[in-house]
Amino acid sequence: MLAHFHGLASTTGLVFFAILGNHGVTLFFVLSGFVLTHRYEKRNVNPRNDCRESSESFGWRNYAAARFARIVPVYWLSLIVTLIAYLFSGFNISLGEHPEGALKTSLGFAVNWLALQAWIPDASIQEFWNSPGWSISAEFFFYTCFPWLIRVRFLDGSMKSFFFVLLFFVLLLLVYLGILALTGQVTSSLLGYGVRMPLLGLLPFIFGILLCRRQHQYSPAFLHPSTKITFSLIAIFVITWFQADWLSTISPFSSAIWRSMLAQQLIFVPLLTTLIAALAQDRGVYKNLLASPPLVYLGNSSYAMYLFHWLPLCYLIHYFGPGGLSWGHTFLFILGIIVMSMGIYRWFEAPMNTWLFKAASNR
Fold first, then answer.
1. CB atoms < 10 A from the CB of 111, how many?
2. What is the 3-state secondary structure (H, E, C) of 280-340?
3. How many whole angstroms separate alpha carbon 178 and alpha carbon 185?
């Protein structure tokens, strides 16, 4: 949330935290691929030889029901709450670009309801209703691809598979940037669309799949997991610090965006994958910390927090203006959103997930 709320606080010099927060979505995509592979792939299957067996044993209906129950209820609730807020307070509270006319506004809501907005190169479609929802649109695409991806024999978790997957997506990004350059469309809006494009975002998700398979087949490296976690965190913080300082010197803004896109693929996706690998292997202080009941509950509530922080931020910036609050007051509002999200998880998300999954499984 600091990536978004830093625009509300009056304190300067903390752009670093905004850039650091942007890596959270990439981290989630890697973790998503890792967790799904761990959950649904047979442990005794070698991906190099038995991908078809792994897919044929896949519980398609239960998989679809679990993904729907996990993602959709809170996502739809956030859109309904946003719609009600806009009807009572007016559309001008939105931080996103406003659609032109009632038809486009309604169409944008329908596209967001179906979680297709990340495919539409229009800021008013992607950002007006609930800007963080673009990642849910991308995640639905990843979930659709997952049953096919676990059948791909080449994605076996070897270092060769990591290298060629990274090479493929870097080339894909360069093709996209090349098309924009050749057509004279190197604009912030189209580059921003590239940042959110589900096809390009598939890289960290596939890295999560590869990581899980590598964990099952290969022995851990010589470094202790806790040491790897510490080094990975230091590297992420230090590189992000230099990135924030470097990007502030680049003009125009569009040049900073495409450089950040390349850095994300070449540097941060591998770094975040290394971090998750070490966390999965760790049996020490980091594991105990993350397994503590308060952090587990916060983790369970984080999805609601992610989707429901945008509307309060819209209200706060609308009434106080950018930079209108101190960081102390901003953190108090963030704390309130965390408490609200815990309530949404406890009284809506968890029971709704359980009910929907049971209803779908009993059919």
1. 19
2. HHCCCHHHHHHCCHHHHHHHHHHHHHHHHCHHHHHHHHHHHCCCCECHHHHHHHHHHHHHH
3. 10
pTM of the model: 0.91
Residue 362 dihedral angles phi and psi, to the nearest 5°: -80, -5
pLDDT tens across the length of the chain (363 residues): 667 777 777 655 566 777 777 888 999 999 999 999 999 886 545 555 555 444 445 677 888 888 998 999 999 999 999 999 999 988 888 888 888 889 999 999 999 999 999 999 998 999 999 989 999 999 999 999 999 999 999 999 999 999 999 999 999 999 999 999 999 888 888 888 888 999 999 999 999 999 999 987 766 566 788 889 999 999 999 998 888 777 777 777 778 888 888 999 999 999 999 999 999 998 888 989 999 999 999 999 999 999 999 999 999 998 888 888 887 888 899 999 999 999 999 999 999 998 887 887 666
Between CA 171 and CA 162 the distance in angstroms is 14
- C-alpha torsion angle, residues 112, 118, 122, 128 (rounded to 10): 40
